[in-house]
Amino acid sequence: MAIKTLAPDEQPKLWQFGQEANDMISTKTLGFWLYMLSDALIFAGLFAAYGVLDHPMNTAGGPTEAQIVHPIAAFWQTLAVLTSVFAYSIATVAVKHGYRQMVVLCILAAILLGCVFLALELLDFADLYAHGATPQVSGFLSAYFVLIATHGLHMAFGILWLLVMVVQVIRLGLTAPVVAQLLNLRLFWQFQAAIWVCVYVFVYLKGAI
Amino acid sequence: MFVHLQGPYSFLLGRFTLAAIPYNNAIIQFAFAFTAIAALLVIGPVLYFRKIPYLFREWFTTVDHKKIGVMYIILGLVMMLRGFVDGLMIRTQQVMADGPHSPGFLEAAHGYLPPSHFDQIYSSHGTLMIIFAATPILTGLGNIIVPLQIGARDMAFPTLNAISLWLTAVGAALIMVSLFVGDFSAAGWVGLIPLTELDFSPSTGVDYWMWAIQISSVGTTLNAINVIATIVTMRAPGMRWDRLPIFTWTTLSTSIIGLTSFPILGVALALLGADRYLGTHFFTAGMGGNLMLYTNLFWIWGHPEVYFLVLPAFGIISEVIPAFSEKPLFGYITMVAATFAIAGISWTVWLHHFFTMGAGPLVNSFFSVATMVVGIPTGVKVFNWMFTLYRGRLTFATPMLWAVGGLFLLLIGGLTGMMLAIPAINYTVHNSVFVIAHFHCMVLLIVYAAFAAVSFWFPKVFGFRLDETTGKLFFWSFSAGTILVFTAMFGLGFMGETRRLDYLFNTQWWPALVIEEIGIGFYCLSLLMFFVMLFVSIRDRVKNAATADPWGTARTLEWLTHSPVPFYNFAVTPHVNSRDELAWRYANNLASTVPDHFEEIHMPRNTPVPIIIGALAFGFGFGLIWRIWWLTALSLLGIIAVVIYRSFARDKGYHLSAEVMTQLEREPPLGVVSESQYLSEPPLGASGARPLGHAGAH
User: Which residue, of B17, B54, B124, B447, is most buried by count of CB atoms within 10 Å of its CB?
Assistant: First the structure.
């Protein structure tokens, strides 16, 4: 491509004066979407590993998938995580209207429901341990526990973040940096619910058949 | 919950005992003495001139993308030096241990390295060169150049950028520690499974390898996020997508690869970690594990990683060749398309690393064809470069020599890659040193491009050019080494030498091994030349002081601002009017036009948070390696606490007023390098906010 030369009377604009536009929220949101993409790939890798090890050959004489998954019990977990996301969504509506107390209340409800989810998961794990189905028994159980526990760890981390945001909303108010974080947390929290839906379908529902 | 371990264990020190320090090994003693002397040579003057506060204030706590990039590159060069010493040791062992009558020294039956030690050396050679040399150097270049090329003030997330650097440094530090405390993995840089399982590698070696890579790859992923966000949201006005410089394009594509592939490596290593720490059975040979699952996951990262490295190298070549041909790059759009085609295909070829897995003809055919398809966009690139050179006004300055030299390596490496893409050939030469010679050509192409970039952009960052005479001697001695070592290695591959041998049985290989050793001698000479070049360049820095465009023929935006680049990059954000903006301003006699007035600008403030997180990450990794659980737990809690604390801090940065900017831009110190500036105080470009903080902060 040849270089264009200017017409003799043309006055090109060489410098951009005026305050630089720096939309902090949109840059942070893009960055967080990219982070979630990398998180999605972690789960992609784990689901791939689960898909490979979810084979009768990989149970090594231990319990099979159909023996350990309980879709009905896990349904209550599904309800808990989805209503938690719903509670958080109401919080974001409240952010729009600037109702600080409502924001705090809804986030607290989301935390409570997230804790219910984690408690149900731990009860499920305890039950499996009691029956001798531990991650050390077979390749299949290793994949089962690590996939679900990784999601559980994400949930626990999300609860910690929700708690931090409650404090921030109370102490700092709905400032631009706090709102940016609230928006990113919404993405994180909904993403964990979406991953749980995948877990429920590919582990609990498919496994029970 | 944790696996049962053999050997001593204590709560306070985990698996660590004094016996873990190999103080009685002559080679380690030598390595320790060498490292200690090198460290003293660096730390001694720092202490003597009382530069620690300066280093901490201006470098360790910096969020300036240029300084972070410089530290990335220094880290990469130091690790490359260590990786080179490993390579030298491998070559020397093989030339000494050829045939049953070859003598043995120290503890070895043949050569001077016992097998377990030799295995650690080739493992660390690969790990260091790929992950701790090539990756940081290219990441550092992207860090320095991309914001300048797009006219940005800094990266999108300056603090995160510094965290990425320190996480990478932690990985490198762990590998250095493994040299003197405990041992390193003996299972190859790829972590040959099930050799990496606890049953077969009970020591901490594999743990060092695993956590060093894991921690640094978190840093690489975060950096990829940062680069993408920067390029997407922070381009100067007028910097449309069709005007983006090629190096920025390639860094964007490489960051997309990094963002999507490093998490898979994280999964592969985490599952291996679960096997080693919790006793699960992901990759064990029995109990329902699957060995090839690891190999697949590793190479699903591993092959994109190759293109993660090679694409910025292509970008560098695409910047250097037009600048020294005095022509616009031929086929800009096809170059961008080829870059993204290569990035896309990089996802679909991983299985060609193990055709011999026995996946069956259909699967092997798919991956064979996919691999050959890579040749099409790569060919487009090569022809674009050739047409750029064709009838150009060529100047063979040092960067140009490195760039054109890299093209020859690309040709040899690419064509042998095409051979290896054919499963039938691959079955014959699999695991032979023919493969090693092939991928060293490709990796050396990256090194050539990196040296091209270092010599090309050095004056931009430091304000003076590198010495041309010694720079060319460096290039030619390095190239002589490359030709001798790898031509002989291709031959040895055809003669049947397999890789990773500590003892060679065939005495007919000896002449070729000697040629390789002579090549290593040339590499040593080139190393000497490198240091001479640095010495001469720093001595003559006043004579070689650089103008904004020291080459006189540069084309892109980064050459518009001063050399060295002031800490705020551009006093006034440039408005971009054309692809190759500087060349356009030259053609219209606008290159020397400066803004008629200045305005207040906003800068991020330095922070110690990143280096604190780095220190805690080191404690986290070290605790995991030696299973010192209290250290791991405390470090992890510390990281979480620091992150939460930081989320409450409302650091808005600081402003530089219009008067300060006018003063900075109008008064002479800027861009002019005087001797005293470099010896006593940092040059203005590197001085950060300190002297201005009072004037400009609000």
Answer: B124
